[in-house]
Amino acid sequence: MLEDKRLFLLDIDGTVCKGKQLINGTREFLSEVKQSGGQFVFITNNATKSIQDYIETFQELGITTDYHNFITASYATTRYVKKHYPDQLIYVLGTKSFIRELKRNRIRVTTDCEDAEIACVLISYDNQLTYEKLQDTCELLSTRKVDYIATNPDFVCPVEFGYVPDCGAICQMLEHAVKRSPYFIGKPETAMVDLAIKGNHYTREETLVVGDRLYTDILCGSRAGVETALVLTGEATKEEAEAFEQKPDYVFSSIEALHKAWK
Ligand SMILES: [Mg+2]
After folding, report:
1. Rounded to the nearest whole angstrom, what is the distance from the C-alpha of residue 96 to the centroid of ligand 1?
2. pLDDT for 238 beyond 90
3. ∠95-165-243 over CA atoms, to 5°?
4. Which domains does the chain have, with CATH numbers?
5. How far is the CA of 17 from the centre of ligand 1 (A)?
6. Taking each helix axis from N to C terminus, what angle separates 26-35 and 255-262, rounded to the nearest 10 degrees?
7. pLDDT digits (tens, 9 = 90+) for 162-194
């Protein structure tokens, strides 16, 4: 039941923000969630920004948040790697800032494909991508026994003028060459939802996943056994939602309409 929800797991792009603009009703909704003793956590596949970047962006939009309000695909990846590859060497194709974040979390990282100890290849969004990095990754994946993971399956990442290729597109390019595809950690896998529920002590029945995309947000909630709400301020349309295999439990025109229905 919608009125029983206390923990709101919100997508960012297309759900609460459109570019650098806040979507109408977001501020009021978040403040009422807090006032009623509930909690909100943004769960995002966007690996281009750190949690600190997000805190600052939301501050500029007049919304005060802290580290507990965010779980990003890169954060979930860090947790995943620490759990599954303790002290093992990870080859990373990603930005310098992503590599820094992994190292800060005491993960052993290399960008040298000749390293004999490599246990796993990890791909992320990379706006510093070079052909050399692609070639090194191909060599590793086709000649060595290594695991293969990636931060998020999104094909595109929204920017000011439209879209640029995201992690999923890089992986698809590699797949043509090496005939392997990675295990993706972001939505629709359930790792971020599981971390959010665990960290906030609410039940799955009290939790709602909110997003604008069917194949990541809605599928993720449904796989995690949590009710889902689709908002029509981003990618998916009402018609697409009706045709989708895992139908969202609720469909709202916007976060504002969700707020009204929940109240
Ligand atoms: Mg979105």
Report:
1. 25
2. yes
3. 130
4. 2-45+187-262 (3.40.50.1000), 75-181 (3.40.50.1000)
5. 9
6. 30
7. 888 999 999 999 999 999 999 999 999 999 999
